[in-house]
Specification:
By secondary structure, the protein is of the alpha/beta class. 30% of the residues lie in helices and 19% in strands. The protein contains 19 helices and 37 strands. The strands form 9 sheets. It has an 8-stranded parallel sheet, with helices on one face. Strand 22 (399-401), helix 12 and strand 23 form a beta-alpha-beta unit. The longest helix has 34 residues, at 600-633.
């Protein structure tokens, strides 16, 4: 009897506790038909996101008992398998202990296997796996020879004395490692158990359902992250945790202990590629164990787009650069020194799995001192070295060339690397891919990839503090990359690492299976992620919060905010932005207080802190904007807005201090050292401030007399009356939009006063007719359209108080036809037509392309995109 095979199901009922569902899916691209899967979910389980749940806590017929009672299955891995596989088996042992408080034995010899054994190994590397294949106990034909593929299968009576085995078989080293970590995640260990303090839910028993669970090949061959812009946050934490590099006082010790934790996380997320921290560090030199350990773990190493041939900038600065200065290939005297420097780099690492970066940018990632002709010469020399050092054709060694910034101009002008070199296309540093492969470029043997940014340090303005990357945008951009064949390498700049947990995992998940995660289910991904980290009870609310805070931050990145970012006077824009953020932070705070204490640290760093800190920052700039406006209008409350701004600034400091020193026992000290307040206005400087400062805020204090004096300010105007030129007139009201407008009655003195409001027409509706003004009171104005005359009507509102008067004009537009009820489409209001992209009147689809919404993409509701294939011809819309 053939085992059931499950691959990439679509579990829409993931969050329903104890809910049963079945699904039949056909995977045409792999020729695998998935049989019906009957699954019972436990609400406390952690699931591999978007995959079938194959672990349960109640024993059913045919289940494999991983742990039951006081017994734990034995973990068997051959001593001759890959060292990285053997090491990962140790992680599985630790994970089982984290979940059950019991330790599974590990054996490395086939003799005397117990009746319940987890057999782990790599096809062609593990004798026991190969024996099971020969004996037809397992069928590995679907993964043999594949890249990073694996399966888990419950096998009855696989060997004498073994009643049942769980077999984890991989096509290669990483395939087996991914299978191991897939099981770890399914039994309840989040990939973020260390880096985000996600707790492990205790289980008394763990069973694996019968069947075969298969994954791979990945959608993108090399999937990785770049630790960049790492100071001050990550470097500060590394220094506090691991000290300085021996002999280099003040240089953060990014040693093998640190990188081991990064390597493990990348593998748990099914990634395989890393560009290491490089601002002040040298991966290979700072700790010689780093490259060896990376290869053992199974991490493919590279160097950044500006550091060729596995050599770090700092290796040059600490060595040849002391005598030769900044590297510069145009300096003839430097050329032989640079050539030897590059040769040494690949000599030292030729036995490790790497992708070699070609070319040369100027020092410290600055604009190139090397032109197109010199770049072509450099690539030729580097290729010759590669062939000589590796003893084979250069085409057999993975290489990339990244046409970043000015280097892209060289490519556009005709510079071409050899066709076996992967072209790593960069985005614009802001998450918008600048270039994708043409039809001709898609035929290159080296293929193409993408260098993407979640963080950026450079002109015209840096953004490094908090996550500002909505998943819908990542999906839309990277799905284009996949569609256009840029799928050899995906690497993303994750800045100082912590704070980008959700987009980092989504990016790598998308690279692992681009077909599973589409524009239709980014919300599902976030919901499943929230359920895994915090349980299903609050998953929907948590998912909405993390989606919204990233979306709100993407409207205007925190470092780009200033008091003028949003309008205080028009459309209540600034007020609505801050109200949205404040409401989100209040929801997050309420959820935090509802969670079990053991989940609060993870929730704080992943959800509450970034939401609360972002809301507070927007509140601060709103208060500063009101300070400027109120001072210009002569409001006494201008001074209160100055004080509020300073209070929000102090609260920002308190939040940073709490994150660094208090929460999680101070485990993550320095991760909130990044300066984010105090950039020079107008984009004149991109360098992040060394410390947060109000120096550029332009706060004002005004002299306020004791005697009261009334002033008014109106919606959509920065003027104030009495005193301003012209009449005070509210924006026109119309029956279609049925707007509300406001008039602020404010005090120009220190003493409170009473005021009255009267309208000269019965169709003008006021929120209040009198009141007392200490500082500011807002009167809302609307129209009773049942009383408003048809056509254009004019009226006035009179404000009286503190011995003064002011009049505000009102205009109401109420045409006889068309009526609001029979109007089709959208109508102008106050000189503006505002339409959400998804609120179209009509869209025209055809057989090859259709318009689909992208929820939460953009500033407000959504965006729209076409599903047209890349080779579709341009067409004109059909008849309307």
């Amino acid at each position: 009897m053939r085992p059931k095979v499950y691959r990439y199901p679509h579990p829409t009922a993931m969050l329903a506790p104890f809910r049963t569902f079945s699904r039949r899916v056909s995977l045409a691209r792999k020729g695998i038909v998935l049989l019906t899967l009957l699954t019972a979910f436990c609400p406390c389980h952690v699931w591999a996101l978007g995959q079938a749940a194959y672990v349960e806590n109640i024993n059913h017929s045919g289940d494999f008992p991983l742990t039951q009672g006081n017994d734990t299955a034995t973990l068997m891995v051959d001593a001759g398998d890959w060292p990285g596989v053997i090491r990962a088996v140790g992680d599985l042992q630790a994970d089982i202990n984290r979940v059950t408080s019991r330790t599974a034995p590990i054996i490395k010899d086939i003799s005397g296997l117990p009746k319940y054994t987890v057999i782990i190994g790599t096809v062609g590397k593990s004798p026991i796996i190969d024996q099971l294949i020969r004996d037809k106990k397992i069928d590995a034909s679907a993964i043999t020879g594949k890249w990073e593929s694996f399966f888990l299968q419950v096998v009855p009576n696989p060997l004498p004395g073994v009643d049942s085995a769980l077999v984890i078989a991989g096509s290669d080293k990483r395939g087996t490692i991914y299978g191991i970590y897939d099981l770890s995640e399914q039994i309840g260990v989040s990939p973020w158990y260390f880096w985000a303090d996600v707790p492990v839910q205790h289980q008394d028993a763990l069973y694996l359902k019968p069947g075969k669970y298969q994954q791979g090949e990945p959608s993108v061959k090399y999937r990785g992250i770049f630790l960049n812009d790492e100071a001050p946050d990550l470097s500060g934490w590394v220094t506090a945790t691991y000290g300085s590099v021996p002999g280099l006082n003040g240089v953060a010790n990014y040693n093998h202990e640190f990188y081991a934790k990064v390597f493990e996380l990348i593998l748990r997320l099914k990634g395989n590629f890393l560009w290491p921290a490089m601002w002040n560090n040298a991966f290979n030199e700072d700790d010689p164990e780093n490259p060896r350990l990376a290869d053992e773990y199974g991490i493919v190493m590279g160097t950044s787009h500006q550091e060729p041939m596995l050599r770090a900038q700092k290796e040059w600065d600490r060595g040849p650069g002391r005598q030769s200065g900044n590297w510069n290939f145009n300096n003839v005297a430097q050329q032989p020194i640079l050539e030897q420097f590059w040769r040494d780099g690949i000599e030292h690492n030729k036995n490790y799995e790497s992708i070699l970066t070609l070319g040369l940018r100027a020092e410290n990632d600055s604009g190139a001192a090397t032109g197109a002709d010199q770049t072509a010469q450099i690539i030729g020399l580097q290729r010759q070295m590669i062939a000589e050092v590796y003893g084979s054709a250069a085409a057999k060694v993975p290489q990339l060339w990244c046409p970043y910034k000015e280097v892209l101009d060289y490519y556009n002008a005709g510079l071409r690397p050899p066709e076996d070199v992967t072209l790593l296309w960069p985005d614009d540093n802001w998450g918008n891919i600048r270039r994708l492969p043409t039809a001709e470029e898609r035929t290159r043997s080296g293929g193409a990839g993408i260098y993407y940014h979640f963080d950026y340090h450079g002109g015209p303005r840096s953004y490094q503090w908090l996550n500002t990357n909505p998943l819908p945008k990542i999906q839309e951009q990277m799905s284009l990359a996949k569609q256009y064949g840029a799928d050899r390498i995906w690497i993303v700049n994750v800045g100082h690492f912590k704070g980008y947990e959700l987009p980092m995992e989504y990016f790598l998940s998308l690279a692992w299976d681009a077909n599973r995660w589409t524009s239709d289910n980014t919300e599902e991904f976030t919901r499943l992620w929230a359920a895994r980290e915090f349980g299903p009870q609050f998953a929907t609310d948590i998912a909405d919060i993390v989606e919204k805070y990233a979306k709100f931050n993407a409207r205007r990145k925190p470092e780009l905010l200033d008091p003028a970012s949003y309008s205080v006077s028009d459309y209540n824009e600034a007020g609505q932005v801050t109200a949205d953020f404040d409401a989100l932070a209040a929801r997050a705070q309420k959820l935090y207080e509802s969670l079990p204490k053991e989940r609060q640290d993870a929730f704080y760093e992943l959800v509450l802190f970034p939401t609360k800190a972002s809301a507070n920052l927007n509140d601060m700039y709103f208060a500063a904007a009101k300070n400027a406006l109120y001072a210009a209008q002569g409001r006494a409350s201008a001074n209160d807005m100055d004080a509020q701004t300073r209070a929000f600034f102090a609260q920002d400091g308190d939040l940073m201090k709490f994150f660094n020193q208090t929460f999680a026992g101070g485990k993550w000290n320095h991760f909130m050292d990044e300066g984010h307040i105090g950039y020079a206005p107008g984009g004149n400087s991109w360098a992040d401030p060394k410390q947060n400062s109000l120096n550029y805020m332009g706060l004002r204090q005004i002299d306020v007399p004791l005697a009261p004096a009334m002033g008014i300010a109106i919606d959509s105007s920065t003027s104030a009356w009495p005193g301003a030129a012209g009449d005070a007139a509210l924006p026109q009201f119309d029956v279609y939009n049925q707007q509300k407008s406001y008039v602020d009655v404010f005090n120009q003195g220190q003493t409170a006063f009473d005021f009255t409001v009267t309208a000269d027409a019965p169709w003008i509706v006021l929120s209040e007719s009198k009141g007392t003004v200490t500082q500011d009171e807002r009167v809302w104005v609307s129209i009773d359209w049942s009383k408003a005359p048809q056509g254009t009507a004019n009226g006035t509102i009179k404000f009286s108080g503190a011995g003064g008067e002011a009049t505000v004009k009102v205009v109401a537009f109420h045409p006889a036809t068309p009526t609001r009820e029979n109007l089709q489409g959208f109508v102008e209001g106050q000189g503006v037509v505002s339409i959400e992209a998804a609120h179209y009147t009509k869209k025209i689809d055809d057989d090859d392309a259709r318009w689909i919404p992208l929820p939460d993409y953009g500033r407000t509701l959504s965006a729209m995109k076409t599903t047209a294939p890349i080779n579709a011809p341009s067409v004109a819309p059909g008849p309307g």
